[in-house]
Specification:
Structural class: alpha+beta
Helix content: 25-40%
Number of helices: 3
Largest sheet: 2 strands, antiparallel
Strand content: 5-15%
């Protein structure tokens, strides 16, 4: 039984290639694959909202202890791995 999940490109990425590069970077850094909103910025979110390509407009941004911006989805927008697998099927 193959349980590999092929992720769907979020609309905020310009191309499947850009998304593939981001996914490859997550493997190198250990960041969870669902963390693309974590990597977003308020300016990019605004740009994507203007062109209706932001899938999570409720993301809020904070500055962590090291001074980095971190986006965080609303709790109701988060999915578990099993939910994501079911949606991808």
């Amino acid at each position: 039984m193959n349980t590999t999940i092929t992720p769907v490109r979020p609309a905020c990425f310009k191309s499947i290639g850009e998304f593939a590069n981001w996914l490859a970077a997550t493997k190198r850094t250990g960041m969870p694959k669902s963390g693309y909103c974590t990597d977003c910025t308020p300016a990019y979110q605004l740009e994507m909202l203007k062109v209706q390509r932001c899938g999570h407009p409720g993301v809020t941004f904070t500055i962590d202890a090291d001074g980095f911006i971190e986006g965080k989805r609303l709790k109701q927008d988060r999915r578990t791995r099993s939910e994501a697998a079911r949606l991808a099927a």
